[in-house]
Amino acid sequence: PSPTSLPYPLKMPELHKAGVAFLLAVGHFFYQSSGFTKFYNELYAYWKCTPLLVLISFVALHGGGVPVKTRAFLAIALTAGCAGDYVIGIAKEGIVPGAIAFGIGHVFYMLTFVPDTLSICWPLAAALVAWNAVVGYICILPVLKVSVFAVVVMTIYSFILTATVIFAASQYMYGSSAHPAGSHGLKWRLLGFALFYLSDNILIMEHTGIRVPLAEHLILFTYFAAQYLLVRAAVSCEKHKPKSKSS
């Protein structure tokens, strides 16, 4: 068959091209920041945003076959992440407004797939909530003496992020109304949110004085990988979406 007759002829290659551009942007930020060294200034924040600007451009201009509504949600989620990157990059105190921005982003990410959820993995939910309680007690509760608002924001953000992991893992294990269990798109989504969860846990530990070896490298590598994988998950889910019986 001719290339134009193939289903989704350019979607994955275009995503791969965006992935290469994204990787180059991450590498350039690594170079500009002297190996992910925090500077807390506008130039650092700008270069930190460039990888997500690549993904936003891909989603807005091409989308890999993803429906317009889903592309809009992805673009908003990525833009919120970009805003979070910026405010966290210009000042250490930016972690609270950054959490608000990322929380908004995660809500829009969830809008792209949570309506398809059929079953919840409650043992995983209980385990993550227990872990959050430990991290919250050690890292966030002491901040209560300084700012009640910061504790409330970080707690709400923690629940939102945890929800993304629970829903993504539940769909991967049990399937959804749109995809069978274990499908590639669900796998990429779960991995993306798991890396996001890992990145933010290391971030809050490092921010509150718990030293983690190579913390900044782990935070940023897992974070950038997570953002790319979430876009890849959306493209993969759309590519492998089962055709309706009526079609």
UniProtKB/TrEMBL annotation:
As for subcellular location, the record says: Membrane
- Any Pfam family from its record, for instance, is YhhN
Q: Name one GO cellular component term.
A: membrane
The record's GO molecular-function terms, alphabetically, read: alkenylglycerophosphocholine hydrolase activity
Q: What class of enzyme is it?
A: hydrolase
Which reaction is this enzyme known to catalyze? a 1-O-(1Z-alkenyl)-sn-glycero-3-phosphoethanolamine + H2O = a 2,3-saturated aldehyde + sn-glycero-3-phosphoethanolamine; a 1-O-(1Z-alkenyl)-sn-glycero-3-phosphocholine + H2O = a 2,3-saturated aldehyde + sn-glycerol 3-phosphocholine
The name on file for this protein is: lysoplasmalogenase
The organism's taxonomic lineage, starting at the top = Eukaryota, Metazoa, Ecdysozoa, Nematoda, Chromadorea
